Amino acid sequence: MRGVREIVETAWGRVDRDPAEIGRSVSIVVDPTGRNELPVSMASDTVKPLTGSPEEIAAGLEAFADEGIRHLQLCLVPNTLETLEQFHKVLEAMGR
Fold first, then answer.
1. Is residue 2 included in any domain, yes or no?
2. Number of structural domains found in the chain
3. Is residue 83 part of a domain?
4. What are phi and psi of 37, to 5 degrees?
């Protein structure tokens, strides 16, 4: 994220925008099951789901806040009840 953020903030400076005044949002794919079952529409070499233990996923999500991201749009895969139940453990690890 750091490299992309620097490119975007440089562009904002060129149009006289203060980066501190602009909210940052990111969409990410999260696979709490570790099965890496991406829908065909997402399957590519560039889509790398955030996966791991609930604590590892929680740390990954919190790292976005450390980079100044204030809004995360999550796509949980696979789209199943089991995935939601596994993600609940991530929220618990985050104290939510």
1. no
2. 1
3. yes
4. -100, 80
Within-domain flag for 85: yes
Which residue range forms the structural domain that includes residue 85?
Answer: 23-93
Q: What number of CA atoms fall less than 13 Å from residue 2's CA on the CB side? A: 2
The tokens 């099951």 sit on which residue? 33
Q: What is the distance between the alpha carbons of residues 68 and 78, in angstroms, rounded to a whole number?
A: 28
Residue 78 lies in a domain: yes
Q: How far apart are CA 88 and CA 74, in angstroms?
A: 13
Q: How far is CA 6 from CA 20, 28, 58, in A?
A: 13, 19, 24
pLDDT in tens, 26-78: 999 999 998 888 888 877 777 889 999 999 999 999 999 888 888 999 999 99
